[in-house]
Design brief:
The chain is about 35% helix and about 20% strand. By secondary structure, it is an alpha/beta fold. Helix 3 packs across helix 8. It starts with a helix and ends with a helix.
C-alpha cells in the first residue's frame, strides 16, 4: 500500500506545481464553485509558526481524542505516506478517497498548486465526518496567503515558535516582515495562543497584534518548569506533572505545553491531560527508532531521527545531544535553501564524525560532496555516502554510540519509509 501511495503522490507532483505561489484567489474560486464546503466545518483550529507546528497539533489531537472528541487534522509535509496528511475522525484518508475528491476538484477546471489541491481534498473529506468534529489545520508557508487561511472566525489560532526562516519569500527580508506575514492576518474574532518566543520576536508579535480584538493568551501565563529533575506544566490554576519516555527535547516539551494550555481552555480535565502525555509520540522528531535500519548497526549503537532544518531546530537538538556521555555521530541530508553552513556549525563539539548524503527525489537537495565540504570547513571529520543505508554501514563499528540522522523532514521521511 505504501508503494501505491508513493506512486500516487509522484503523479500529483507531476500534475500540480510544487512551486510556491502564495495567493488565496485560486483556492477560493475552487471552493466557491464547490458551494463553499469549508463553511460546513466547525471548531477550526489554525496552527502556524516556523517550528513546532506538527508537534503542537499532534499534542492537541491526543488531548481532544482522550476527551472522547472527534478530530480531523490536515498536516504538512508528510514524512513518507501522503495519506498521513489527512486524519479523519478515527482513520487516515484512503487512496480511493484522495482520487475521488481530486476528480471533484478537477471538474471546476481551475488551476491549483499541489498544496492548494491537498487543502481542498482535506476540506471535502472533512465535511463527511461528524459535524461537531474539531478541525486542526497546519499552515504551509506563513499565513497571510496560505491556503489554510480560509476561516474568518475559527475556534482558535495557535502560534508556535517563529524564527528567521523562508526569508526568500518576503520583502523586506526582516524578522518583522516574517512575523507580519504570520500573525498580521490572524482573525480578530477568535482566541490567539502565542507559544514561547525569543524576547525580541515576542515584542514584534505584540506590536503587530496591538489592534487585534481577539482574546490573546501569551506564553508566560503558562510555562513548562523543571522541579526536582521532573517536568511540570504550570499556570495560575494548574500544576501538572509531565511523564514521558518518548518526548525528549526541551523544544518538544514547549510545544506540548502550548497544546496543554489550549486543551485546558477547551475544557479538558487536567487529569485527562496528565494521563495522556505518556502516550504522545512524534514521528521523525527526536525519535529513537527500531526496524530495518537499526539492523545495519551493531547492538551497542542507537539510531535517532530528527527532521530539524532550521537554526532554532538544530540548536534544540544540539542541546538535547549534549546530555549524552557516549560518542555521537551525525548523518545529514539538507536542502540548499536551509543555510547548511549554519545548521552544521550548530553541532560543533557534538558530532565525532559526520556522514553526508543527498536526499533522494528532492530537486533542492544539496549534493553530498558540497555538504561534506561545508562540514569539513567547520572542522568535522567528514565522509560522503551514496544513501542512508550506505551511511549507516560506513559509520557502524563496535564502538558504543548514538547515530543521529538529521537535516530535513524529507531525509527523515525517506529513512522512515525504508524502516
Amino acid at each position: 500500500m505504501l508503494q501505491l501511495s508513493t506512486k500516487l503522490y509522484k503523479k500529483l507532483q507531476r500534475q500540480y506545481s510544487r512551486r510556491i505561489n502564495l495567493d488565496l484567489k485560486r483556492i477560493r474560486r475552487v471552493l466557491e464553485k464547490l458551494n463553499n464546503p469549508e463553511e460546513q466545518l466547525d471548531n477550526i483550529i489554525n496552527i502556524l509558526g516556523s517550528d513546532g507546528k506538527n508537534a503542537t497539533g499532534i499534542s492537541i489531537k491526543y488531548f481532544l481524542e482522550a476527551n472522547n472528541q472527534k478530530v480531523n487534522t490536515f498536516t504538512s509535509p508528510h514524512l513518507y505516506d501522503v495519506r498521513h496528511r489527512f486524519w479523519l475522525g478515527n482513520k487516515f484518508i484512503s487512496l480511493k478517497e484522495i482520487k475521488k475528491y481530486k476528480k471533484i476538484i478537477e471538474r471546476t477546471k481551475q488551476k491549483l498548486t499541489l498544496f492548494e489541491l491537498l487543502t481542498c481534498i482535506y476540506v471535502l473529506a472533512a465535511t463527511k465526518t461528524n459535524f461537531d468534529s474539531y478541525n486542526l489545520c497546519e499552515s504551509g508557508l506563513f499565513f497571510k496567503k496560505d491556503s489554510t487561511n480560509l476561516w474568518s472566525n475559527p475556534l482558535a489560532q495557535v502560534v508556535t515558535n517563529i524564527n528567521f526562516q523562508h526569508q526568500e519569500w518576503v520583502h523586506p527580508k526582516t524578522m518583522t516582515e516574517i512575523c507580519r506575514q504570520k500573525v498580521g492576518y490572524l482573525s480578530d474574532d477568535t482566541t490567539i495562543y502565542i507559544g514561547k518566543q525569543k524576547p525580541k520576536i515576542l515584542k514584534i508579535i505584540k506590536g503587530i497584534l496591538k489592534n487585534n480584538s481577539s482574546n490573546q493568551i501569551i506564553y508566560g501565563s503558562w510555562k513548562i518548569i523543571n522541579k526536582n529533575k521532573k517536568k511540570y506544566y504550570k499556570d495560575k490554576k494548574n500544576l501538572i506533572k509531565l511523564n514521558s519516555k518518548q518526548i525528549h527535547s526541551d523544544g518538544l516539551w514547549e510545544n506540548v505545553g502550548l497544546a496543554i494550555k489550549a486543551a485546558l481552555d477547551f475544557g479538558i480535565n487536567p487529569k485527562v491531560i496528565k494521563k495522556t502525555v505518556p502516550n504522545i509520540q512524534f514521528e521523525g522528531r527526536v525519535q529513537f527508532v527500531r526496524g530495518k535500519l537499526i539492523k545495519i548497526l551493531k547492538k551497542n549503537e542507537r539510531l535517532l531521527l530528527d527532521g530539524c532544518h532550521s537554526d532554532e531546530g538544530t540548536k534544540n537538538l544540539a542541546r538535547y545531544l549534549r546530555k549524552f556521555k557516549v560518542p555521537i555521530y551525525g548523518i545529514c541530508g539538507i536542502q540548499k535553501n536551509k543555510n547548511p553552513n549554519q545548521l552544521i556549525k550548530n553541532f560543533k563539539g557534538i558530532f565525532k564524525k559526520v556522514v553526508t548524503f543527498k536526499i533522494p527525489d528532492e530537486p533542492s537537495a544539496m549534493s553530498s560532496s558540497n555538504l561534506r565540504k561545508i562540514a569539513k570547513k567547520n572542522g568535522f571529520d567528514t565522509i560522503e555516502a551514496k544513501n542512508i543505508k550506505d551511511a549507516l554501514k560506513k559509520i557502524s563499528t563496535s564502538e558504543k554510540k548514538i547515530v543521529v540522522l538529521w537535516g530535513s523532514l524529507y531525509a527523515v521521511g525517506h529513512a522512515l519509509s525504508i524502516n
